[in-house]
Amino acid sequence: MPPTRYEFRVSGHLSETTRHAVDQLGRLEVVPAPPETIIYGVVTDDAHLQGIIGLLDTLGLRLVALQRVPEFSSERNDSP
C-alpha cells in the first residue's frame, strides 16, 4: 500500500492529553468539527492504519467514519 491520506472522524472533542497521544503517531492534523473531531494524516501501510485505529480505540474514542481523501497539491493552477 503506498502512503495514502486518510480522514478519521471521532465523536466529541479531544482533550489536550488525548491530542498529545494522537500526535505521537506522526504528522496528523487534528481539526475540531463539533460534534466530532477530524484527524487527517498520511498512512504509510496497513500496519500503520491498524495502529492508528487501535490507538483511537485505546484512548476511548469512538471512530464514526474513516475514508481515504485525495492529496492536496501544493501547486495550484489558477489560470483560466
TrEMBL record:
Protein name: Uncharacterized protein
Gene source species: Prauserella alba
